[in-house]
UniProtKB/TrEMBL annotation:
The name this protein goes by in its record: MFS general substrate transporter
Principal subcellular localisation of the protein: membrane
Pfam families: MFS_1
Gene Ontology CC: membrane
Record-annotated Major facilitator superfamily (MFS) profile domain positions: 55-465
Keyword line: Membrane, Transmembrane, Transmembrane helix, Transport
UniProt xrefs under Gene3D superfamilies: MFS general substrate transporter like domains
Length: 507
């Protein structure tokens, strides 16, 4: 799997800045100018502000439109989709899950494509096709055609969240990434609120088409327009950003350091693939992904039906998704700043804290009488706080995975778990159990409990690995301070978190 520590120690001492190591690394550096280069703090702050202004909004808006695309199925269900397509039995659940079968089938091909191709362009092309197919859903007149298009949309979406993570890792340091992931993940909340408002507005359209058809046409057109704009404006990396001056490009690249895990290395390394597969952290992330997405699969496809089951009309049901989205927004933002404020960035602890209200909410839905509509509605809103833990888990992956190929594999496996959870979620909701959906609510309850256990297990394992690395450094007569000097001397390296003895896990 990974190279022995002794090999790394020997090679790290003999590294020289002799020329470019990868065509995507930007300007060439020499050993002498690296050691003499000092980053001006005011200039660095200006560069960071520019990056925040020119990168994060693209991810936020893309996250918004793509999530609304997915959630639109749930809104369409309360506006006559099931009746128009003559859905029976588990057919609606299949429509929800088929999206993730497409995602699952194309996850690894698109992950490795993004290691070879410009990420921004690949994302834009997929997004445009996605929007076009979303509009085509309005023309479907039966279950089979709708199911086939849902598969294609899932295949195209398989690049989205992995691309967001890779873009974030390309532009930001490990310490900066959780806050930025928090920023764009809050748009899950905005998407729920805006999607509910959009569905409510479109629901009042009186025309030759059904309300659910107008919904798909409208959001699909917005998605296509945004994809075209993004293709021509989103920068691929600091060295090619037209909105950065030359001195700003130097700062944007150098501040990340040679060990920065967002560096682009095109070579696919077999030993990193093996390390990813046999790394226990990979499987803890995998299981966390399943647990969180069982809930997401339920909420995105059956959330509106759950609210309708409390006794509300279809139009009112869509409006009640707005507070749900606002709680997501507040939860994600507050969680990211809370973990930043706590000593040592206790990400796993913060994630667990935000799962607890969601756990209480689903217990309430399961136990409170149907006569108490408001109490049930509040419990449903509480279940949205779990999304903060998903954002935290994504930040844990980017912060704790080194090596370009390994990162691609771990991201791919995590989003396979993303698909598995979203496939399981809708099928746990059985149509013959409406409106209580007892099996689905119990599945959400189990998923929350499993997530809490897995987060605590990851924190324990990461702490143990850090202690092992500390011992190796002491025995080699080195310390973490050596990394600061060495970072000015080395060429950019593509090492995994396990083979880099200076790498410390964040938990």
């Amino acid at each position: 799997m990974s190279k022995p520590i002794s090999d790394h120690l020997e090679s790290s001492e003999s590294l020289e800045y002799g020329g470019p190591t990868d065509q995507n690394q930007g300007p060439e550096y020499t050993k002498s100018d690296a050691s003499n280069y000092v980053i001006d703090s005011k200039l660095e702050n200006r560069v960071i502000r520019k990056i925040d202004f020119m990168i994060i909004p693209f991810i936020c808006i893309t996250y918004l439109v793509t999530y609304i695309d997915k959630a639109m199925l749930g809104y369409a269900a309360v506006f006559g989709l099931k009746e128009s397509l003559h859905l029976t039995g588990t057919e609606y659940s299949w429509l929800g899950s088929m999206f993730y079968f497409g995602y699952l089938a194309f996850e690894y091909p698109t992950t490795f494509a993004m290691q070879k191709l410009p990420i921004s362009k690949w994302l834009s092309v997929n997004l445009f096709l996605w929007g076009a197919i979303t509009m085509a859903l309005a023309a479907c007149g039966g279950f089979k055609s709708f199911l086939a298009l849902r598969f294609l949309i899932g295949a195209l979406e398989s690049c989205s969240t992995p691309a967001y993570l890779l873009i974030t890792a390309t532009w930001y340091t490990v310490e900066e990434q959780p806050i930025r992931i928090g920023w764009w993940s809050t748009f899950l909340g905005v998407a729920n609120s805006f999607g509910g408002l959009l569905a409510f507005a479109v629901g009042h359209i009186k025309g030759s088409l059904e309300s659910w058809q107008y919904q798909f046409i409208f959001i699909g057109a917005i998605t296509c327009a945004w994809a075209i704009f993004m293709a021509f404006t989103l920068a691929e990396r600091p060295s090619t950003a037209p909105w950065l001056k030359e001195d700003e490009k130097q700062v944007a690249i150098r501040r990340l350091g040679p060990r920065h895990h967002g560096s682009n290395f095109n070579e696919i390394k077999k030993y990193q693939i093996l390390e990813a597969v046999f790394d226990p952290k990979t499987w803890l992330f995998f299981l966390c992904g399943v647990a969180t997405q069982v809930v997401n699969g339920a909420a995105s496809n059956f959330g509106s039906l759950i609210i309708q089951g409390f006794g509300y009309s279809n139009l009112v049901t869509t409006l009640f998704q707005i507070p749900y989205g606002m709680i997501i927004l507040v939860s994600n933002v507050s969680a990211m700043y809370l973990q930043r404020w706590l000593p040592g960035q206790k990400r796993c602890l913060v994630a667990v804290l935000y799962v607890c209200p969601a756990l209480a909410g689903v217990v309430g839905i399961h136990t409170i009488s149907r006569d108490h509509k408001v109490a049930l509605l509040v419990c449903y809103w509480l279940t949205s706080t779990y999304t903060a833990s998903f954002a935290m888990i994504m930040s844990l992956i980017t912060a704790n995975t080194g090596g370009s190929t390994k990162r691609s594999v771990v991201n791919g496996m995590f989003f396979i778990s993303y698909c598995v959870g979203n496939i399981i979620g809708p099928f746990s909701f059985k149509s013959n159990e409406a409106p209580k959906y007892t099996s689905g609510i119990v599945a959400m309850l189990v998923a929350y409990c499993a997530e809490i256990f897995l987060l605590l297990a990851f924190a324990t394992y990461a702490a143990m690995q850090n202690k092992i690395k500390d011992k190796i450094l002491r025995e080699a007569g080195l310390s973490l301070e050596n990394q600061i000097h060495q970072s000015l001397e080395e060429t950019p390296v593509d090492q995994t978190d396990m083979e880099d003895i200076y790498f410390r896990y964040t938990y």
